[in-house]
Design goal:
single chain; 299 residues; 6-stranded parallel β-sheet; 3-stranded mixed β-sheet; 38% helix; 15% strand; globular
C-alpha cells in the first residue's frame, strides 16, 4: 500500500475510484490492462490521500445533485477498506451533501456500511450493484480466489432487498469453456430472481482480453486449467473480445428468464436506472469505465 496526492476525486462524469489496484485476485480483471498506465504493482494498492475531504469539497461546489458512481475500475471494498474505511467516509460525505450513489462490488464488506447506504437511499437514491460470474462455489474460488463467494454475494443482494435498497447484478464475464454453460447461467439468474434484483446487466457472453490482462489470465489458466491457454489461442488469437461459442443459446435463455421475471435486462435500460436520481427526476452524468464500453470483469 502507498498513498498518492490528488487534487480531485470525483471525475467530470461523477465517478470516483478511491483505490487503484486490487487484492481480490480475479484471474480475468481488465483493470490490469496496460492501457490504464498503472505505474505500480496491481496488488500494491494506491490510496488517494484525503479522498473523503476532497470529495466533499467537490460535492459542495456542484450546482445540482446527481448519482455518484464507484467500483467500475477498482472495487471500493478491497481488503484495505477494513482498516482505512475510506469508502465509508466517502459514503458519509455523499449522504451529508444529499447526493445519490451507485456502488459496484464483489465483496460482502459492503454490509458494514448498511446504515449509511440506507440513509442515502432515504434522502436521495442508493443502488448496490454486485458482480456474479460463477454459480459453482468451487469454481468461484478458483477464478475469484480472494473475494466473497457467489453465495455470499447473493446474501448481500438479499440483505439489500430486505433493507429496501435496489440492486443490480453485473453478469460478467463469461469465460469460454469454463463457465459458459446454461446450468451456470440459470443458477445465477435464479439468485437474481430470488433476491428480487431490479436489473441484470450483461454485455454479451464472453470475456475481454488485452495487454497486461491477457498475460495474467493465461498464466492463471496454466495453473488452474492446464491446456486451456492453447485452446484460447487457437480459438481467439489476440482478439480483444472473446465470445463464448454458446453465446446464442445463452442470450436466448438470459432474455427469456429476465422477461419472465420482470427484471430489466436491456443494457441501456439498466444503466439508465443506475444513473437516474429519483424521485425528483434529476439525472446524473455518465460515470462509465475509463475507455468507453464497460469491460467484462471488474467490480
Amino acid at each position: 500500500m502507498h498513498y498518492a496526492d490528488y487534487k480531485t476525486i470525483l471525475s467530470p462524469n461523477n465517478g470516483m475510484n478511491i483505490y487503484r489496484g486490487c487484492t481480490h485476485g480475479c484471474i480475468y480483471c481488465d483493470s490490469r490492462s496496460a492501457c490504464y498506465r498503472m505505474d505500480h504493482d496491481f496488488e500494491d494498492i494506491e490510496v488517494k490521500r484525503d479522498a473523503p475531504r476532497i470529495l466533499e469539497g467537490q460535492l459542495k461546489r456542484r450546482r445540482g445533485k446527481c448519482m455518484v458512481g464507484t467500483g467500475a475500475m477498482c472495487d471500493p471494498y478491497i481488503h484495505l477498506e477494513e482498516e482505512l474505511q475510506m469508502t465509508r467516509q466517502c459514503l458519509l460525505a455523499i449522504e451529508r451533501q444529499g447526493f445519490g450513489v451507485s456502488v459496484l462490488t464483489k465483496s460482502s464488506r459492503i454490509l458494514r456500511d448498511m446504515d449509511v447506504l440506507k440513509a442515502i437511499n432515504r434522502k436521495a437514491k442508493c443502488v448496490v450493484q454486485v458482480t456474479l460470474t460463477t454459480y459453482d462455489e468451487g469454481l468461484c474460488r478458483k477464478i475469484e480466489p480472494n473475494v466473497s463467494t457467489t453465495f455470499e454475494r447473493f446474501q448481500v443482494l438479499k440483505a439489500m432487498e430486505e433493507a429496501g435498497i435496489p440492486t443490480v447484478v453485473w453478469l460478467c464475464p463469461t469465460l469460454p469453456f469454463i463457465n459458459d454453460t446454461e446450468e451456470n447461467l440459470r443458477g445465477l439468474l435464479g439468485y437474481c430472481a430470488e433476491a428480487k434484483v431490479r436489473g441484470v446487466l450483461c454485455f454479451g457472453f464472453g470475456v475481454t482480453l488485452r495487454e497486461g490482462d491477457r498475460e495474467y489470465f493465461y498464466d492463471a489458466l496454466d495453473r488452474l486449467f492446464p491446456g486451456m491457454r492453447q485452446r484460447y489461442i487457437e480459438r481467439f488469437g489476440d482478439s480483444y473480445i472473446c465470445d463464448s461459442p454458446n453465446s446464442a443459446r445463452l442470450t436466448e435463455v438470459f432474455r427469456g428468464f429476465c422477461e419472465g421475471h420482470g427484471m430489466l435486462h436491456r443494457a441501456e435500460e439498466v444503466i439508465e436506472y443506475t444513473r437516474a436520481l429519483e424521485p425528483k427526476g434529476r439525472q446524473s452524468s455518465i460515470f462509465e469505465h475509463p475507455g468507453g464500453t464497460p469491460p467484462a470483469g471488474n467490480g
